[in-house]
Amino acid sequence: MEKKILFLALAFTTLVGGQLCQAQTIKSQIVENGGTGAYKAEVVADSTCPRFTIYRPQDLKAAVQAEGKLPVILYANGGCANNNVEMRYLLSEVASHGYVAIAIGPYDEDNVMAKWSEVLTFMYPESKGAQVTLADGEQIKAPSETEKKAIEEHFRKQMEKERKSAGEKKKAPVPQPTYPRMLLEALDWLTDQNANPASEYYHTLNLDEVAAMGQSCGGAQVLAIAHDPRITTCVILNSGIGDMTMQGATKEALNSLHTPMLYLIGGPEDVAYPNAQKDFERIKDMPVVMINTLDGHSGTYYEKSGGSYAVAVRKWLDWQLKDNVGQSALFLDPEYSKTMFPDWTVVRKNFK
Q1: 273-312 pLDDT, tens digit each
Q2: In whole angstroms, what is the distance from residue 129 CA to residue 132 CA?
Q3: How many angstroms separate the CA atoms of 187 and 193, rounded?
Q4: Rounded CA gap, 229 and 259, in Å?
């Protein structure tokens, strides 16, 4: 009798626990009409994973019926920030083509263009020419010499302030807002949801096809967890480890890579350019493609639908995660890539 009572108690606990872990959408939004893909995307907040934001087709069932189970993208932010708004256009665009992306950082409805307007004002790449146009039509012009000096003075004062602070009495270290393992925690959550019959994600995810993707500091977070056997491919955006130590990643992390790699870099004006070149040279065995554009460290994430960077990311993922070999032309066929993006330089190695 006691054993029966204990069994029922455990069963009840498991049931309640399952209900508590069941995905529950509490907020959602649609950006840029849901993207240009066949499956209009939405940005979702879920009560059971409040530290993350989900980008997915609005109608998961329809997408799965047409595509089969959907590949997964794990995304880490520039600056290792706890906010993914700056990548909202790209992630939504890619999701509209039949992917489920989960990004570090809680759901946020901040104005995407306001953030990019600020970024480009301070980090304008000269290679972009006289001006760039944001997705909302706002034009950001290249700073004048006077404005450049003001920006340089701003950063000089900021560095002096940081040096002064470092020379003062040491204080308790400020904890990092995010950390590399959050990418794997996000994957764990999706894995649980995919196996939960009560979840809206039940049997919708192809967990054999998982991309880890990060921009700038987020790229270092990707390299720190790239050894995980569940990762199928890595996308490194405006990032590279070089000789640095960042977020637990060092150049030694390149020795444990086991998946094809895409580096999408903004050319010599990209602060990540030197490190990315070193990474490319040091990767010995894994297939790796490096694309250099003229877009600097900010890529094209502020353009409609994430711009040409979103196109490159989607083509890479379609090839690597959906086995769409036709999409490999951008990365393997010099004539095709030069025709499609004449200002890009594409190099590759370790492909048979």
Answers
A1: 999 999 999 999 999 999 999 999 999 999 999 999 999 9
A2: 8
A3: 10
A4: 9
Distance of alpha carbon 164 from alpha carbon 173, whole angstroms: 16
Q: For 138-188, write each residue's pLDDT tens digit.
A: 999 988 888 888 877 877 887 788 777 766 655 655 567 899 999 999 999
Query: Which residue stretches of the chain are H helix?
Result: 2-21, 60-67, 88-95, 112-122, 145-167, 181-195, 217-225, 273-282, 307-322, 329-332, 334-340
Instruction: Pick the range with the lowest mean pLDDT from 24-28, 100-104, 159-163, 255-259.
Output: 159-163
DSSP, residue by residue, 240-274: --TT--BTTB-GGGGGG--S-EEEEE--TTSTTHH
Q: Which residue has the tokens 């108690």?
A: 9
Residues in contact with 62: Cβ distance below 8 Å, sequence separation at least 6, in sequence order: 39
Check if the beta carbon of residue 300 is closer than 8 Å to that of residue 270.
no
Contact 290, 280 (CB under 8 A): yes
The torsion of the CA quartet 128, 77, 321, 30, rounded to 10 degrees, works out to: -80
